[in-house]
Amino acid sequence: MQKEKNYAFIDGQNLHMGVTNIKNSWRIHFKKFRTFLRDKYHIEIAYYFLGCVIEEKRDLYTRLQESGFVLVFREHNPAMLGKKKGNVDADIIFSVMKKLYQDEEFDKVVLISGDGDYKRMVDFLIEEGKFKKVLFPNKEFASSLYKKLGSEYFDYLDKEHIKSKIALIEP
After folding, report:
1. What domain range includes position 159?
2. Number of domains, the chain
3. DSSP structure class, residue 67
4. What pTM value is reported for the model?
């Protein structure tokens, strides 16, 4: 049997907040995370959505790209830079739907976010047989809208057996 060819769509701000703005915060080792996505979920392309380009974050962007992520930045009015959060929800939904509309050759979508704004898209992808899993940064950041999903459709990155594979171990 041929291996699946799946795509990951990562809400970068949601992921970052979901592992750092919690009681026992931790950081993700991007290379390990990319390897985990490839090995566990057969992710061929991992799209990492971010707010706007911020000069001080260039090292982060380089690390993400070197780890194998495709960076997608949200377009902002220059006057609004620094005044609002990234808000990449619409961009992720549009990107997924565009790939479906253009009949791009991939099997399923893996979404990394706890944001409930994706719920309608997730339901649609499940109906179409194009959804693999939503990976929540942690239980606190998992929208209650996803409670009715079967456990085969979600997991938590902060589960010890997953976190141990993707966490940055700081000296």
Report:
1. 6-166
2. 1
3. T
4. 0.92
